[in-house]
Design brief:
The protein is mainly beta. It has a single domain, classed as Alpha-Beta Complex (Phosphatidylethanolamine-binding Protein), CATH 3.90.280.10. 6% of the residues lie in helices and 30% in strands. The chain has a 7-stranded mixed β-sheet. It has a 3-stranded antiparallel β-sheet with strand order 2-7-10, with no helix packed on it. Strands 3-4 form a two-stranded antiparallel sheet.
């Protein structure tokens, strides 16, 4: 999981604020979650009775959304954790506690563009089904075109880093991490994107084409005392 400490230098929140006013909202739902908590099946790290953090199943989320408005020709999806501690040297250290109010950064877990307009759901494991050190190929699939998740650091030196990568928050973090899943309904079949694209590239390319969007949060932690 060392590569997960490499964060994309993105400004997702600012890009979303810069998008034009939307004419409608999409309803985003998850078919497998424990209330607002993300299922360990969808995490890349889990805790056990004998270890604070071990590799998890890393199955991509089962997510669905309502139909886009008239004129929808494709969808796009992003999943972002805005709660990553900004100092990697503190991660998973028995001699350190990361306080809840510590400064934070974003980590991108999932990017899909050009999702066909006929598709309004992704089954569990559709875009990642098991641990993967280097991610999935950055290619067009039947369920959309993969962008690069945060483990790639904006390059291809140690793998493509496409597809879903599940949560793996530091086990010594006092904050419960939130995971923002956003779906966009777009008025184009395909976005004008480079061969290797990030969530920031997607949002920049999509901002003039958004007919509707919807977001929903899930939460996850490896610290039993987080948020208390």
């Amino acid at each position: 999981m060392k590569s997960m400490l490499i964060l994309l230098n993105v400004t997702v929140v600012a890009a979303i604020i810069a998008t034009p006013a939307l004419s409608a909202d999409l309803k985003v739902t998850f078919s497998k979650s424990n209330g607002p908590m993300l299922s360990p099946e969808n995490a890349s790290c889990i805790s056990t009775s004998s270890s604070k953090s071990v590799p998890g199943p890393n199955k991509s989320l089962a997510v669905s959304w309502s139909n886009g408005p008239r004129g929808t020709r494709s969808y796009a999806l992003t999943m972002v954790d805005p709660d990553v501690p900004a100092d990697f040297s503190l991660f998973n250290r028995a001699d350190k506690i990361i306080p809840e109010d510590f400064r934070r950064m974003e980590f991108v877990h999932w990017v899909l563009a050009d999702i066909p307009p006929s598709r309004t759901s992704l089954g569990e494991g559709t875009d990642g089904n098991g641990p993967s050190a280097n991610g999935l190929p950055l290619e067009r699939t039947a369920h959309g075109r993969r962008g690069q998740n945060g483990t790639g650091g904006g390059n291809l030196e140690d793998g493509p880093h496409g597809g879903y990568v599940g949560p793996c928050p530091p086990w010594n973090d006092e904050r419960v991490h939130s995971y923002h899943v956003t779906v966009y309904a777009l008025d184009v079949d395909r976005l004008n994107l480079p061969d290797l694209f990030t969530s920031a590239d997607l949002i920049a390319a999509a901002k003039e084409h958004i007919l509707a969007s919807g977001s929903r949060d899930l939460f996850y932690t490896l610290n039993a005392n987080a948020g208390k």
